[in-house]
């Protein structure tokens, strides 16, 4: 049976499997995933190292721990989440009615996952979709085949294909899947592919969640605590070698802090990963670029920046054979450079100085709304000014990326950086239909407004609309 035939068979099996999934069964699914992960941590880490040479600590934190946290919060709250929610009455005319929200599954769900955090960004949405009672088909990235294989093994160990199925393969598999009338599509990836997914979903009027990216800015004002700022920026930029949709993409630093920032960033990079390029290249704490295509894209971006007048303040060396690019700080950046026009998604960090905070607002607002915005400041006035004059999926003050780890916060973008929310209760809601329910009593004041519209009825309508 070829892939297309297999997809067709599984899709229709899931379509026919439309019996409600009880709280007990949903909990059992979550527990089985939790146990499987805890029993296969070594294999999960090994797969990530083969695909991206990720440091073990990054895998433990950003891949395994995060998914286990999603499961933990779902297990703790699922009964409450599933419980119908009573709502109030908006008018006395409905005084005899009872109203509530009933949470039902979307139905058939397609999850298309990316390669940069392949386990996290595949199994995390799966947990939310299962908690909401859906049937799910998963398409992981072909760029991380070892992680895709370990996830495939997990799915086959735990689920029958009519409940959850996973299909490996290239973009042709994704294209085939997108032809089917799923009820909801959850996509994580680039804005370019997000548009294609959205167009495909629109043909079936499927609801959709897009977690995309964009150029995430970081503002450092004159009041920032520089040692703390430097430590957090190095971690935030270097995790997964910058291949993250919420990695700091460019820095807007007050002119009075620019030299200090560059010096401290350079010293911190050297102290953690080694002073020489060879030491950094051999560092067990730095991941690798996912493949040659993405290496060459970053290489071209760096070369074009230099050709356009940028200077390398730190780093800049590359090793294509080992798919390694040294964490690189770029100075003398202008806004018309290519590196300021597209998401970097790698270990290149442009630095731009400013004198007035209004300049930062103009730069940020001239671009599409980012998935995240970071600011380092001790000035509440400056912080509030940025909050009120910008828009982003999320904003973190005196930290980077940590909002992703807070499962009580809705995670997602706005406009070009995506729409829809995930994590915790918000993930459950994303994969649920909030069904409006109302049960009326035998008598309703609304009935006083029914036709024929004689003088008495008209007086009642005026009374109802004025007082009730």
Detailed description of the structure:
The protein has 468 residues and is an alpha/beta fold. The protein folds into two domains: 3-212 and 418-435, 3-Layer(aba) Sandwich (Aldehyde Dehydrogenase, Chain A, domain 1), CATH 3.40.605; 217-412, Aldehyde Dehydrogenase, Chain A, domain 2 (3-Layer(aba) Sandwich). It has helices at 3-16, 23-39, 41-52, 56-82, 120-131, 145-158, 171-177, 191-202, 226-238, 258-273, 277-281, 292-307, 357-365, 380-389, 424-430, 455-467; strands spanning 85-87, 98-105, 108-112, 135-139, 164-166, 184-188, 207-211, 217-220, 250-254, 311-314, 318-319, 324-325, 328-331, 348-354, 372-376, 394-397, 418-419, 432-439. The strands form four sheets. The chain has a seven-stranded mixed beta sheet, sandwiched between helices. Strands 5-4-3-6-7-17 form a six-stranded mixed beta sheet, with helices on both faces. A three-stranded antiparallel beta sheet has the order 1-2-18. Helix 8 (191-202) links the parallel strand 6 (184-188) and strand 7. Helix 3 (41-52) crosses helix 4 (56-82) and helix 9 crosses helix 10 (258-273). The longest helix has 27 residues, at 56-82.
Short synopsis of the structure:
With 468 residues, the chain is α/β, with parallel strands linked by helices. The chain folds into two domains: 3-212 and 418-435, Aldehyde Dehydrogenase, Chain A, domain 1, CATH 3.40.605; 217-412, Aldehyde Dehydrogenase, Chain A, domain 2 (3-Layer(aba) Sandwich). The chain has 16 helices and 18 strands.
């Amino acid at each position: 049976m070829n892939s297309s035939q297999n997809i067709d068979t599984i899709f229709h099996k899931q379509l026919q499997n439309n019996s409600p999934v009880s709280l007990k069964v949903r909990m059992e699914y979550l527990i089985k995933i939790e146990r499987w992960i805890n029993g296969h941590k070594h294999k999960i880490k090994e797969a990530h190292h083969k695909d991206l040479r990720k440091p073990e600590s990054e895998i433990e934190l950003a891949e395994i721990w995060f998914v286990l946290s999603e499961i933990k919060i779902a297990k703790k709250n699922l009964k409450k989440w599933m419980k119908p929610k009573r709502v109030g009455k908006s008018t006395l005319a409905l005084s005899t009615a009872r109203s509530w929200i009933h949470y039902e599954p979307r139905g058939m769900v397609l999850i298309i996952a990316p390669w940069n955090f392949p386990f996290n960004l595949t199994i995390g949405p799966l947990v939310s979709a299962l908690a909401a009672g859906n049937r799910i088909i998963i398409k992981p990235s072909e760029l991380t085949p070892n992680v895709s294989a370990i996830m495939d093994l997990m799915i086959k160990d735990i689920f029958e294909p009519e409940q959850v199925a996973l299909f490996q393969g290239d973009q042709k598999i994704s294209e085939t899947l997108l032809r089917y009338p799923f009820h909801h599509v959850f996509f994580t990836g680039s804005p370019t592919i997000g548009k294609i997914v959205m167009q495909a979903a629109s043909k079936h009027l499927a609801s959709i969640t897009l977690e995309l990216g964009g150029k995430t800015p970081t503002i450092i004002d004159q009041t920032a605590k520089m040692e703390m700022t430097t430590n957090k920026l190095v971690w935030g930029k270097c995790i997964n070698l910058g291949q993250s949709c919420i990695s700091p993409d460019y820095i807007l630093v007050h002119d009075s802090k620019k030299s200090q920032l560059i010096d401290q960033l350079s010293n911190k990079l050297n102290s953690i990963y080694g002073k020489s390029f060879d030491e950094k290249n051999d560092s067990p704490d730095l991941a690798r670029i996912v493949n040659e295509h993405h290496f060459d894209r970053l290489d071209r971006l760096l070369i074009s920046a230099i050709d356009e007048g940028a200077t390398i303040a730190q780093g800049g060396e590359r090793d294509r054979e080992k798919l390694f690019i040294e964490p690189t700080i770029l100075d003398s950046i202008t806004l018309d450079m290519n590196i300021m026009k597209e998401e970097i998604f790698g270990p290149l960090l442009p630095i731009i100085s400013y004198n007035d905070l209004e300049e930062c607002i103009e730069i940020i607002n001239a671009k599409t709304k980012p998935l995240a915005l970071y600011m380092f400041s001790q000035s509440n006035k400056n912080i509030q000014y940025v909050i009120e004059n910008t828009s982003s999926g999320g904003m973190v003050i005196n930290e980077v990326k940590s909002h992703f780890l807070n499962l009580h916060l809705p995670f997602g973008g706005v406009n070009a950086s995506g729409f829809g929310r995930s994590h915790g209760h918000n993930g459950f809601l994303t994969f649920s239909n909030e069904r409006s329910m109302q049960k009326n009593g035998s008598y309703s004041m609304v009935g006083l407004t029914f036709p024929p519209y004689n003088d008495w009825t008209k007086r009642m309508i005026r009374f109802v609309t004025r007082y009730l």
